[in-house]
Amino acid sequence: MRAYFSLLIYTMLHSLVLTMDMLIMHVVLTLNHSSWLQFCIMTCVTELKLTVFKKFDISGLFEVANDDARDRFNLSIYFIATLLQTS
Fold first, then answer.
1. Can you give the pTM of this predicted structure?
2. Mean pLDDT throughout 55-68?
3. Contact indicator for 3, 60 with CB cutoff of 8 Å
């Protein structure tokens, strides 16, 4: 029973974080084009700073590629949802 409640709390917090991500994407997309460009550049630079100067083995490199693919998928879903909401 305790594991169920901890899973429920984790799911609710994760949903809240994803909703906040979607809200930030919506605000950035509806402001203007320069804010969208700044957001993309800031996201890419932050990710590069985290991964450029580290040495990776094959499994570490796979994790980085997997995280990057997941982030791009999330951004594309948020972008499509925002376009559907605003049109």
1. 0.63
2. 78
3. no
